[in-house]
Amino acid sequence: EVQLVESGGGLVKPGQSLRLSCTGSGFAFADYTMSWVRQAPGQGLEWVAFIFNKPHDGTIAYAASVRGRFTMSRDDSRSIAYLQMNSLKTEDTAVYFCTRGDSTSKIDHWGQGTLVTVSS
Amino acid sequence: DVVMTQSPLSLPVTLGQPASISCRSSQSLMYSDGNSYLSWFQQRPGQSPRRLIYKASKRDSGVPDRFSGSGSGTEFTLKISRVEAEDVGLYYCMQGTYWPPITFGQGTRLDIK
């Protein structure tokens, strides 16, 4: 069974940093692309970042709203994807979902999400 | 960016009756390989999203066959042939043809009349 488990969420002040982790199991992690998608309270889904797997040189893409502040990476040896979030703003408050993708779709499976709250 | 527009945004349905959600993209989602990378996701209350449909019309394993996806170009539809109580929640379309960014529709809230 495919499982994606996020961790690292919490309450931080504006301008601070946080690192989210996503541990995958039940599948060959290195063979899949990974993304982060967020959902602000009572709002819809917003794609945040995407990382290819090795055959595509691990290319990374970011949403304009986080580019320059967030950094996505992956450690295939540990089956973990990361999202380093710097210079956090109140508008970054959301549940952050880790997702997996393959040739059928950029997103096929979702984790349970981790809540990030940015507030003074 | 490709803008995804869903309608309606709220969909009250009687149990056992059909339901239909429309998703329109601001440009054709047909990729050079002949596929339209349009997916549909269901988000039940308090849960994370779950993919129902990919490549516009292919149903995921384990998804009841009362769910179906159709469409091409810029017009796509998710249909539920007979709504059940467990279908209550939010439904999102998503395009992955022209990215970044990957873009979602605003979401359609389905509830029972």
Written account of the structure:
The complex is a heterodimer of chains A (120) and B (113). Chain A has 120 residues and is mainly beta. Chain A contains no helices and eleven strands. In chain A, strands 2, 4, 5, 6, 9, 10 and 11 form a seven-stranded mixed sheet that branches. Chain A has a four-stranded antiparallel sheet with strand order 1-3-8-7, with no helix packed on it. Chain A starts with a strand and ends with a strand. The model of chain A has no long low-confidence stretch (mean pLDDT 96). In chain B, 0% of the residues lie in helices and 48% in strands. In chain B, strand 9 and strand 10 form a beta hairpin. The mean pLDDT of chain B is 97. Chains A and B meet through strand 5 and strand 10 of A and strand 5 and strand 10 of B.
Primary descriptors:
heterodimer; A: 120 residues; mainly beta; seven-stranded mixed beta sheet; four-stranded antiparallel beta sheet; 0% helix; B: 113 residues; 11 strands
What share of residues of chain A is helical?
Answer: under 10%
Our estimate of the beta-strand percent of chain A is over 45%
> Helicity range of the residues of chain B?
under 10%
Q: Kindly state the mean pLDDT of chain B as a whole number?
A: 97
Instruction: Give the overall average pLDDT of chain A.
Output: 96
Quick description:
The complex is a heterodimer of chains A (120) and B (113). Chain A has 120 residues and is mainly β.
